[in-house]
């Protein structure tokens, strides 16, 4: 009798378990039929966004992926990219007038009394020209209004003169007092806004001394190519974050850092035809801008 009751009780427990399982399956089927097919994917995305809103980068395995999902961070990246592109476009627009001066009268100031000019020729776009009527009371007078972006100066040899020479080239359209402006000097620097003429002395050279104010190759690398790479990288990284492609955004970010680092190293080492000679001429230098984002690619892994 006891064995029959025990068997009946076991049978009832199995039936209850089966009914419970069938009820669970029925509820799950009902839930699935009333939900979209991608409900699980949607819930996973909502969970990831909820994690991203906390901004506790030390809480997650990949802080950069958490950061790149933030709309504010994406917005800042895009704005930085647009500003870099604006800088590139504005410098390209101003490139034809970079280092150029328009004049009709020229004079050189600052030379010692014993320094005599053997020859003087202006340069425009790398070509020499000598359309001067000769010396006048105000300096060199030219036949018409002329442009220059450099000049070639030759001083007479004098063994007693010092090893350095310092002067400034002044230009004017009318030759009147107060109309003169600096169009050249013995030393200068290439900056993003134009040529900066300095008051320091340059080494005296035998023969002709050429002063070319056109932007050299390091200037293009530092002001055009650098901003182009940086702006493109920022915009693409922000776009990847907005499109929920954090892995692609991380790859773009690291590639941008690597490209910028290689560009900085190449410009500093003088890699490329003419880069070493133009960037290391003791009479002129290229002003380099200090940028926070000029970091080795290894630093990018801090946000990996």
TrEMBL record:
Alphabetical UniProt keywords: Membrane, Transmembrane, Transmembrane helix
Membrane-spanning ranges: 72-95, 224-245, 251-275
Protein name according to UniProt: Uncharacterized protein
Origin species: Cryptomonas curvata
């Amino acid at each position: 009798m006891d064995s029959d009751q025990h068997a009946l009780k076991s049978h009832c427990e199995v039936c209850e378990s089966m009914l419970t399982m069938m009820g669970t399956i029925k509820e799950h089927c009902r839930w699935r039929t009333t939900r979209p097919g991608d409900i699980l994917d949607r819930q996973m995305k909502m969970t990831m966004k909820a994690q991203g809103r906390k901004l506790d980068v030390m809480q997650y395995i990949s802080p950069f992926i958490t950061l790149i999902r933030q709309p504010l961070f994406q917005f800042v990246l895009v704005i930085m990219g647009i500003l870099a592109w604006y800088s590139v476009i504005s410098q390209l627009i101003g490139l034809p007038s970079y280092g150029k001066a328009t004049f009709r009268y020229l004079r050189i100031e600052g030379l010692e009394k014993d320094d005599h000019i053997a020859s003087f020729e202006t340069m425009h776009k790398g070509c020499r020209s000598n359309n001067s009527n000769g010396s006048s009371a105000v300096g060199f007078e030219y036949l018409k209004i002329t442009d220059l972006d450099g000049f070639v100066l030759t001083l007479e040899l004098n063994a007693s003169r010092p090893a350095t020479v310092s002067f400034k080239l002044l230009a004017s359209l009318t030759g009147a007092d107060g109309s003169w402006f600096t169009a050249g000097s013995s030393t200068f620097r290439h900056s993003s806004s134009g040529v900066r003429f300095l008051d320091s002395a340059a080494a005296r050279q035998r023969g002709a001394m050429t002063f070319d104010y056109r932007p050299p190759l390091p200037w293009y690398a530092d002001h055009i190519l650098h901003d182009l790479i940086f702006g493109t990288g920022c915009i693409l990284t922000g776009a990847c974050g907005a499109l929920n492609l954090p892995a692609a955004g991380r790859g773009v970010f690291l590639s941008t850092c690597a490209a910028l680092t290689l560009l900085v190293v190449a410009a500093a080492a003088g890699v490329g035809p003419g880069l070493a000679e133009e960037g290391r001429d003791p009479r002129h230098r290229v002003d380099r801008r200090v940028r926070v984002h000029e970091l080795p690619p290894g630093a990018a892994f801090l946000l990996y």
